[in-house]
Amino acid sequence: MRILLQRSDGKEAAWIADFKDLLPDAEIVFWREGEAAAPCDYAVVWQPPAAMLPELGCVKAIFNTGAGVDALLKFGDALPAHVPLVRLDDAGMGVQMAEYVSHAVLRHFRRFDDYEAQGRAGIWQPLPAFDKMDFPVGVLGMGVLGTRVLQALAQFEFPLRGWSRSQKHIDGVACFAGEEGLDAFLRGTRLLVCMLPLTPDTHNLLDRARLSMLLPGAYVINVARGAHLAEPDLLTLIRSGHIAGATLDVFRNEPLPQQHPFWQEPRITITPHISAATLRRESVAQIAAKMRRLHAGEVVAGIVNRSQGY
Ligand code: NDP
Ligand code: OXD
pLDDT over 90 for what percent of the chain? Predict the structure, then answer.
């Protein structure tokens, strides 16, 4: 088996070593622009440049070393239609998302921002506690990662809601589906968590009109993609007081430009796209196991449905 590996993080040697550990008979070829690679069985990529597209037409499957495939599907028809695209299915990201979102929810709900400000001013003053019943948490996207986050938040006994494309039935979660369910979902949500894939249907989903539907004093957590959120609309609604603040891990332009107004807004917490990192060993183990199955003619989970966009 020959595997074409593309990365731009300078860690290719470690990825190659991990693949060699699990697939000792495989030859791993590192893709370099301008160098023709021998024909390969599988490609393993993350945000590949357009220059790699001709090579991707010759493999039996393309493995994406992330959960989101927007950076591949943006190539549209230039991405070979006959080659299955396989995304990461948790691979250690679920627990990281559960940690990140639980932290952001609890930090806001338990008023840590207020206590940090008081602490800096040397003020010892208990503040009125919020009531959980006034803080329904709504998760947009109840897939692999969204479900894991809902399970984690259930431990803290928040009222939970979720929104997905197809109707779900999850104990303890008020489930909403489709465009027809979105307004009702938003109108009952105080803490909004975005965990959707970026597709033509979800692009700019969180605009002024929809963010205004959230309960007054809402809080927004975006760990999906920057293009889900209309950034100026969020700022307007924070400044008007309808939204209390936000924790954002993803942005339209990454790294977030220095002159971006989010940096100046104390009610916005910014992290640099770290809510759930791709873990190399877990990812290689998952991909290697799927390569073995595909080689044996078996089916694998995580094949992207291109017409749905995720
Ligand atoms: P999944 O494909 O497992 O889940 C996607 C969920 O979104 C599903 O519940 C799906 O509904 C729902 N959905 C998709 N389109 C729509 C729509 N138009 N309307 C309503 N619901 C919709 O993805 P994952 O949970 O694995 O990952 C989610 C996203 O998280 C990734 O695409 C990526 O962008 C982001 N991510 C960010 C990371 C970071 O570090 N910031 C790390 C990892 C992922 P249904 O169940 O009905 O299909
Ligand atoms: C992913 C990401 O989609 O890291 O996996 O953003």
Answer: 99
Answering whether pTM is above 0.85, one says yes
The full length of the chain comes to 310
* Catalytic (active site) residue 108: no
pLDDT at 37 over 90: no
Which residue is associated with the tokens 């692009």?
A: 203
Ligand having the closest approach to the CA of 310: 1
Ligand 2 center from residue 85 Cα (angstroms): 15
Q: Is the beta carbon of 145 within 6 A of some atom in ligand 1?
A: yes
CB of residue 198 inside a 6 A radius of ligand 1: yes
